[in-house]
Every structure is written in C-alpha cells, then in structure tokens.
Amino acid sequence: MIQNLDSILPRVKKPARYTGGEWNSIIKEWDPTPVKTVLIFPDTYEIGMSNMAVPILYDILNRRDDSLAERTYAPWPDMEDLMRQEGIPLFSLESRRPVKDFDIIGFSLGYELCYTNVLNMLDLAGIPVLAEERDDTCPLVIAGGGCAVNPEPISRFIDLFVIGEGEEVLPELIDCLAVMKEAGKRISKAKFLRKAAGIPGIYIPSFYDVAYNPDGTVAGIVPNVPEAKAVIDRRIVDTLPPPVTSPVVPFIETVHDRGAIEIQRGCTHGCRFCQAGMIYRPIRERPPEEVFQAAGEIIANCGYNELSLVSLSTSDYSGIEKLAADLVKTHKRLSISLPSLFIDSFSVNLLDSISSQKKTG
C-alpha cells in the first residue's frame, strides 16, 4: 500500500479525488482473491465517475468470489507533479495499492482524446508503455469501450482488446486467467494470450502482421499464430445485464451527479456524427418493471433525488411516458433526467407530462 499519500493530499485541489472510501465502494481481501483487476477510466475523477461502463464491470467482477476489482482515474496535473516528485506510483482508490501490483489493468476507452492519458498513466504506474517491452512481471494491459472497435491507433500499447460489449467477455477472460494462475504468482503472458485468443471478441495485436502497399496503405493483416482468428467478431449481449443499483457515490460533485439507469442500448437514427449509434446496435430495451424496481433501489442505496433514464435516444423507449410518470408519482421528490431526446412533438409532450418536477437533460 502507498504509505506517504496523506502527506501530499493537503497540497492538491480536490483531494477527495484520490482518497477512496466512497459510499458503496468495495474492498475485498487481497491475498485470498485469485484474480485482481484495476479498472481505469483515463480521465479525471469527475468525468470517470460519470461514466456507466466502469460501474457495470466493477459490479460484475466484485460479485465473483475469485475476483476483485478496484478503480483509478487520471490525476490532475497538480497531483501528478507531486506523485512524481515523491516517487508515488499510480494507485487504486480502494486499497491504495500500486496499479502494477494487479493482474489486469483494464482501460475503458470512451473517446480518442484520452489516448495520451493512457500512455501517461502507464508511465506514472512504472509500467513500460510499449506492449513489446512488458514481460511477465507486468500486469496484463487490456482495453475496451467504444474506441476499441478501431484499436489500431494504440495497438502497440495494449496487450489485448475487447471488441464490442464487455459484460460477457470480461468474465470469460477472468475464468481463463483463474484457471492458469497460481497463488501469488504471475501467469505466463504468452500462454494466456494464446488461450484468450480463442474467446470471441478478443483481439491481440501482437498476433497479427501488417503488410503495406508501396504507397503506405494497408495491403493486409495476417495472423501469425494459429490461435488468432482472421476476423474478430464484435461481441453483443442479447439481454442487458441487471442495472447497477449500488453504484459508488462520490464525495465531490461530478459531471453527472445523479443516479442512472440504462433503459435502452442501441439506436437506429443513424446520425452521421454519432459513433455510438452505429456500434451499439441493435436496440435492446430494459423491461419497464426492471427499471422501476432499480429506481427504488438506487434511491434507497444512494440517497439520490435525481435519476437519469439513460439511452442514446430516450424518447424512442417503448412506454417512456408512462414510465417517467409512474416514477414521479411514486417518488414524490424525485427529479427525472431525460438525456438524448430527439426534439419532436412526442418529446415535448413527454416533458410536459412530468412538468411538476424538475427536468434535466
């Protein structure tokens, strides 16, 4: 564990970004747990805590007896400068252990502008940036999220990419790792990667050779090991996993400082500016009764008085008007946030139907 962290926290802005100990955070016993993962959103705490992917994976991994998951985020420049001056490596919030002590470092890539943060965080952790320079003493560095569908820009820095949705893939990776891992020892990364290559949706850049045309364009990408597939199939979950109803509640205000339930995934509007509308198809709706129950649990577990019904196009959700009205009627002091509305007559009527409560977007 990092011992001298408390001596620098009074010297930075918003020290609560780095203290951990938030409501609903999970700390599991380190030594008895076989597989240890640190989930990283490569941006500041306030932005990362507003992301929905990390809480979903955090919940999935910590529900397993053979796995623990902790979190960390990109430190603000004042904190990074002090960490480098004091020789403090990047650490997890839950146990304050160095990131390099974990078996898996998992980056959630939400947008391309965070790529340089990925490299900076690896360097701050004391881990070689280039995948080819990392040996078996280093954690496995994996990445997923929306940007992973185009992994090549950062393929030299990542050991393994999850292409598509990660709720089913990540447990399969943990199963694979748990079987191979001996207590207290690192796995053979080469052996693990060969085995993991057989999991649908897994792309391992080092298992492919790229050939170029004379003009520099790509002529072909060819597997260089028999385990690697010529085509990687994007993973898609058929049914949305249960919503997270005990998310970590931050001590400081974040970008989206409210409860959130993903009511629908996918969108068919096909807006040309929207990557997510393309990569998260097809549309899958969460049953309204499941949303209603989750809302009550989030309010009870977190104390929020504002709830976001999240999707890429909330007004397209079947029965959204009745759902929103029922939530407001049942939870008298609850404000409903309806993001990503397409402004049409139905959206206006929807907003009017809950006009007695505060609405946010």
Draw up the topology in text.
Blueprint: H1 16-19, E1 35-41, H2 45-48, H3 53-62, E2 67-73, H4 77-86, E3 104-108, H5 115-124, E4 140-144, E5 160-162, H6 169-180, H7 189-196, E6 202-203, E7 208-212, E8 218-223, E9 259-262, E10 264-265, H8 276-279, E11 284-285, H9 288-302, E12 306-310, H10 320-330, E13 335-337, H11 345-353, E14 359-360
Parallel strand pairs: 1-2, 1-3, 3-4, 4-5, 9-12, 12-13, 13-14
Antiparallel strand pairs: 5-6, 7-8, 10-11
How would you summarize this macromolecular structure in one to three sentences?
By secondary structure, this protein is of the alpha/beta class. The chain has helices at 16-19, 45-48, 53-62, 77-86, 115-124, 169-180, 189-196, 276-279, 288-302, 320-330, 345-353, and strands at 35-41, 67-73, 104-108, 140-144, 160-162, 202-203, 208-212, 218-223, 259-262, 264-265, 284-285, 306-310, 335-337, 359-360. The strands form four sheets. The chain has a six-stranded mixed sheet with strand order 2-1-3-4-5-6, with helices on one face.
Question: How does this structure look, described?
Answer:
By secondary structure, the chain is α/β, with parallel strands linked by helices. It has two domains: 5-223, 3-Layer(aba) Sandwich (Rossmann fold); 259-360, 2-Layer Sandwich (Transcription Regulator spoIIAA), CATH 3.30.750.210. Helices cover 27% and strands 16% of the residues. It contains eleven helices and 14 strands. The strands form four sheets. A six-stranded mixed sheet has the order 2-1-3-4-5-6, with helices on one face. Strand 7 (208-212) and strand 8 form a beta hairpin. Helix 9 (288-302) runs parallel beside helix 10 (320-330). The longest helix has 15 residues, at 288-302. It is globular and about 60 Å long. The model has no long low-confidence stretch (mean pLDDT 91).
